[in-house]
Amino acid sequence: MATVDDVEAALANVIDPELGLDFVELGLIYGITIEDGHVHVTYTLTTPGCPIGPQVESQIEEFVGELEGVASVDSEVTFVPPWSPEKMSEDAKFALGF
């Protein structure tokens, strides 16, 4: 059975192509729930008009779906609360000059 840590590690493969950093480091993953092999990921984008939304959803399903014990994956984008640079890891802030 996959754990939240396993899912988070898989989500580190979802890269923002503009910034070159992963969604976990950018603080774009808002929640992960696992129940009976079903994984639900709540995430956000840096802006509501960000054009990579469909690509992100596909990558989430691909990378998380490869984990042992995962029967299904679904994702949900939200803009509440809005993303801000304060949500980034210290490493991401350093890499982007914050």
Automatic annotation (TrEMBL):
Source species taxonomy? Bacteria, Bacillati, Actinomycetota, Thermoleophilia, Solirubrobacterales
State the name under which the record lists this protein.
Answer: PaaD-like protein (DUF59) involved in Fe-S cluster assembly
Q: Which SUPFAM superfamilies does the protein's record reference?
A: Fe-S cluster assembly (FSCA) domain-like
- Report domain MIP18 family-like positions: 5-74
Q: By its UniProt entry, which InterPro entries does this protein fall under?
A: Fe-S_Maturation_MIP18, FSCA_dom_sf, MIP18-like
Cite the PANTHER family for this sequence.
FE-S PROTEIN MATURATION AUXILIARY FACTOR YITW (PTHR42831:SF1)
